[in-house]
Amino acid sequence: FSDAEESESDNETAEQKKLRLAKKYLEEIEKEEAKRAELKELDDAVEKRLQKDYLEQKGKLRIEVADNYVAPKESDVKLIRAKEHRLPLTCVCITNDGEFAFTGCKTGSIIKWGIREKRKLACLTYKTHSKYITKSVTSVAVSTDSKYLATSDMSPNIQIWDTHTLKHIHTFKGHKDTVIGLVFRKNTHDLYSASKDRSVKIWSLGEMAYVETLFGHQSPITSIDALTRERAITSGGRDTTVRIWKIVEESQLIFNGPEGSLDVVKLLDEEHFVSGSDNGSICLWSVLKKKPLCTINEAHGSYNEVPCWITSLATLLNSDLFASGSNDNNIRLWKVSDSYKKIVPLFNIEISGF
């Protein structure tokens, strides 16, 4: 006991002392229980996070959110212009925290946008950075931690920039033709690139070094995507195949798509993906089956009896929602339902395209 407590105890009866000590004991128990509850709450949060990460890694995490989405009003869509983007945009990426967007254009310009501010923050052009940018940007990608921005253009080179300052860091050389697509493996600084030279290359930004080259496609690669696993997925255009590159195993899975040119592919999760072709079809796939689980023909309709070809796809990872773009001036949102056996149209967003 402290001196104050001893002095206090001299002037109290045995009953009062017993009551005081009992209160003190209860206060200590309350503190211990509160701390234990905090730790249990923390343990529960950690357990949920670990379970979510495990399911995501295995490709079994699925959040059903599509029914919560409604078509935006005209007032919800804000058109932002920049004089550096005089020609059609070719690519876009958004940082993992949703703070910034980067766009590339046929004029050879790359713009950093503040999503919250809804305005241009910085710009790179072939005039101001002619050493690193040619006249048409083909791809942009940003690492999960927003440390690096990777860009490609009509040259065979890949440029690495500081995302925050847009200062040039490094140039990767090795492809023999135009680099069409770039993607960072999630939560890493491993970069995958796809080129018209029909190859996929792997680069390590930790060492700023080339790692290896993957061959297999019989025609120029048209798109590339990746998530957490050491795998990349690509579409092979006129060879009508999607290939999953199992990098550690040094093997690949081949999926034969519809006739025409298989132009774009995007992962829904580690086990499922969607593809789009110039014949207007959208296919939903499982990595365990060689044929599509579901196909939507002429997903964006037709013009003069010619199907509107699928030019872009975007997925909300580990969910039942994805979007598609075409030359019909519409972005269409779709719901994946019935255990990945069905694609249901949700709504369209009318917007001027190319």
From TrEMBL:
It comes from the Eukaryota. Keywords: Coiled coil, Nucleus, Repeat, WD repeat. It is found in: Nucleus. WD repeats lie at residues 137-171, 172-213, 214-255, 310-344. One of its GO terms (molecular function) is U3 snoRNA binding. The gene is (U3). SUPFAM superfamilies: WD40 repeat-like. This is U3 small nucleolar RNA-interacting protein 2. It holds the Pfam family WD40. The lineage of its organism: Eukaryota, Metazoa, Ecdysozoa, Arthropoda, Hexapoda. One of its GO terms (cellular component) is small-subunit processome. Residues 4-49 form a coiled coil. CDD domains: WD40 (cd00200). It comes from Heliconius numata numata.
